[in-house]
Design a protein that fits this description.
Layout lengths: L6 E14 L3 E8 L3 E7 L18 E8 L4 E10 L3 H4 L1 H16 L10 H15 L4 H15 L20 E4 L4 E3 L11 E3 L1 H12 L2 H4 L6 H19 L4 H10 L2
Parallel strand pairs: 3-5
Antiparallel strand pairs: 1-2, 1-4, 2-3, 4-5, 6-7, 6-8
Helix pairs in contact: 2-3, 2-4, 2-8, 3-4, 4-7, 5-7
Length: 254
């Protein structure tokens, strides 16, 4: 069997960090080819450390990582893309925390990645850094993440009868992973209503490039409906409440 790499260089998006030992930081990072891994940045909490400032949350860094017994060891780190607005603006930071939590929840440690999630997350960090209203970028990220994670919702035909959806209000089943037509609504006890306009937005998000999505103008009630459906489906798949959601709600109420 080939020996594992003793060290490798990679770009890394920093999803989480916590204090570790007296002066170290434990980082959860997402990489293009090594997937999600946990690494230790020794001395990163010291002001004199060469790693200080290069291992900030929601940034992209170039790292040289040595394979340790339990964790990777960050031998070198240099920030590549700071995404500075994500740490300077409270709302942008809250949404960055949300997308990072989703990436963390929908990925598994030490499983090689095909780079799709890394690319999606880096593009989303960039969008959150520059857009005036981040909500469309968040909705696009959510539905694309569901694709990457293998939970693509069925939006074009009834998940029970498999007939094409008619242009009318429908239902959505989190358990079945898609739209349920009124004729088959009695086959499930846990359905949420989805209006025709909300379904059109969901389909547009699923099939279109972000350039087309960014041009949309959606009123608040309709956007709230789309958000409710996507968040409900995501929460069902994860089987847990997302910690970052409460913080976003508090910021919106300010």
């Amino acid at each position: 069997m080939p020996r594992p790499q003793r060290a490798f260089r990679t770009q890394a998006l920093i999803l989480k960090r916590r204090d570790f030992g007296e002066a170290d930081r434990m980082l959860t990072i997402l990489t293009p080819s090594h997937g999600k891994i946990e690494v230790v940045a020794h001395g990163a909490r010291k002001l004199t450390s060469s790693k200080t400032g290069h291992v900030e949350l929601f940034t992209c860094a170039d790292m040289l990582i040595h394979n340790g017994r339990n964790f990777g060891i960050v031998a070198q780190a240099e920030m590549v893309t700071p995404y500075q607005p994500l740490r300077e603006d409270l709302q942008r930071g809250a949404y960055a925390n949300y997308v990072a939590e989703l990436a963390d929840r929908f990925s598994t440690l030490d499983e090689p990645d095909d780079s799709s999630l890394f690319t999606l997350l880096s593009e989303t960090f960039e969008r959150l850094s520059i857009v005036d209203d981040p909500r469309l970028a968040i909705r696009y990220y959510e539905i694309r993440l569901l694709d990457v994670a293998g939970f693509r919702p069925e939006l074009n035909e009834c998940v029970f009868g498999r007939e094409a959806i008619e242009p009318e209000d429908q239902f959505f089943s989190y358990a079945e992973g898609g739209v349920v037509c009124p004729r088959h609504a009695n086959q499930s006890v846990r359905l949420t209503r989805v209006s025709l306009n909300a379904l059109k937005i969901l389909r547009h998000l699923q099939r279109s490039s972000y350039a087309h999505i960014a041009a949309l103008t959606i009123d608040a009630p309709l956007h709230n409906e789309v958000e409710r459906i996507l968040l409900g489906y995501i929460t069902y798949q994860l089987e847990r409440k997302l910690q970052s959601i409460d913080f976003i709600k508090r910021i919106r109420s300010i």
